[in-house]
């Protein structure tokens, strides 16, 4: 399955913009649903942080997934796209009072709580509304993921989560409070993980913690293992759909789920990553001393991942059929030397006006755009609107 770009339509649109191939998105969602249906008690929430474009969110909601939100704004976006409140979980290390109130007003499924002070505030705010909030504790499993340092979250000294050693104490506090109901444990070890061994390490840790809880006669109904499944940035066409079968099977084989427990997943990148591309235009080809630069009208304000994480996004010249391939440093127009999409990139010979696609940009692309340099935010189009 290869993304076919409607180039004639692209020529009519101001660049840069995001383009979402809904066939890839729908096929990905169908695969998630097919694979997860093999297990009675697995449930998938889409991590809204990866992409909250309303058109994309609506397609995801139609597929039946729940939503994992990390802010009041994301809860609003999910509700607006039609996600049922009963399928929304709310995580985040710093939930403001108004955000907790919003979650309480909508009666969302669960708050993933990251500290005792937060637990106490949720209890207080729920009491003021005469409600009882479902809570799960985010436990830091001290499992390192083999991914970029900025996107691993599960190590011991981390702003996220509650240390494993404090788990019992925190549960005791929750059991005393009248307006929270302790229903589960939550984990997340990082993002862009391709080595199933990392998820196996998490399963082993969850098993240990469950044994400890069982020794105290505490049985939780819900285990949430977060997200993190990676995508193939090098070959967006060869393998557009991640190996969900292997991913769910890994959890089924290694995590000892107790009867009546539900296992929740919060997948972001694996769902929207491959359906999106950033489309931009070449402004200039500039000859340097030892290299040449392709200067695009898109920059780090539109797609920050290369500048922030040295992330690689495959690039394609959509306009040129020129059989000559040349090597370019592909850069943006922002006044920052880190505004580079790639060094020594081979492209079909580039000229001013050519359209360049930066692939695999459907997750953490449009949503992380900024207005730095007083630039406009890029628009997002789905393939169905451009036929
Ligand atoms: N659950 C929690 C608690 C998370 O913190 C995250 C991502 C997810 C789920 C979804 O993870 P995913 O399935 O997408 O890997 N901006 C970075 C990625 C940051 C991920 C933050 N947390 C990037 O562009 O690579």
From TrEMBL:
CDD domains documented for this protein: PLPDE_III_DapDC (cd06828)
Alphabetical list of SUPFAM superfamilies matching this protein: Alanine racemase C-terminal domain-like, PLP-binding barrel
Residues annotated as binding substrate: 269, 305, 309, 336, 364
Orn/DAP/Arg decarboxylase 2 N-terminal domain ranges (all copies): 38-272
Record keyword Nucleotide-binding present: no
InterPro entries noted in UniProt: Ala_racemase/Decarboxylase_C (IPR009006), DAP_deCOOHase_LysA (IPR002986), De-COase2_C (IPR022643), De-COase2_N (IPR022644), De-COase2_pyr-phos_BS (IPR022653), Orn/DAP/Arg_de-COase (IPR000183), PLP-binding_barrel (IPR029066)
A Pfam family matched in the record: Orn_Arg_deC_N
GO BP field: lysine biosynthetic process via diaminopimelate
Superkingdom classification of source: Bacteria
Active-site residue numbers: 335
Enzyme class at the top of the EC tree: lyase
E.C. number: 4.1.1.20
Catalytic activity: meso-2,6-diaminopimelate + H(+) = L-lysine + CO2
Phosphoprotein in keyword set: no
Binding site for pyridoxal 5'-phosphate: 228, 266-269, 364
Gene3D superfamilies linked: Alanine racemase, Lyase, Ornithine Decarboxylase, Chain A, domain 1
Modified residues (N6-(pyridoxal phosphate)lysine): 49
Complexes and interactors: Homodimer.
Known role: Specifically catalyzes the decarboxylation of meso-diaminopimelate (meso-DAP) to L-lysine.
Family per similarity comment: Belongs to the Orn/Lys/Arg decarboxylase class-II family. LysA subfamily.
Name assigned to this protein: Diaminopimelate decarboxylase
